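Supplementary Methods, section 5.1.

A reviewer requested that the exact input to the structure prediction be made available. We therefore reproduce it here, unchanged from the version used in the analyses.
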Amino acid sequence: MMGSLQGAEDAEGRVTSDSASDSIPPGPATNSSSHAPAISSRARLDHPAPDYRIAESGRLALEATSLPEGGVLALGLALAEEAGGVEPLAVRVVSVDGRVLDTTAVRTDAAGGDVQLEIDADWLQPGNYMIQIKTAEKVAFPLRRYVLEVR
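The structure derived from this sequence is encoded token-by-token as follows.
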């Protein structure tokens, strides 16, 4: 069971979060037929500023009604410059019902130095999602995890 959510709204009413108190374990492995198509990296570079930002190892809670209809949800994910390495970065989004989205994220000026991830809003359903980025760090566990909750 997930703990309580913590977050705040910025000047434009977007929810941001710095809480890393809870995490979601990875879901079961799935075959490639359940993977949603990734959005091309080129499209990401031309995308405007992210709709929402998640602090490093943080979580973000969104109302399903705030998702863009038939569009793309752009997330800025805080990631230290030294962890970024060669772009694009491999990202896996795992839902609690076992759906998996393998895609990429890139560092953009529009994201304020964060990496930007775009997810097809139609793929998101109410529930919790673990967003995992594979970093370029030379450590035993070169991953960063974030939590997205759609209510």
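Strands lie at 8-9, 15-17, 52-54, 59-62, 72-77, 89-95, 100-107, 115-120, 127-134, 143-150. These observations are discussed further in the main text.
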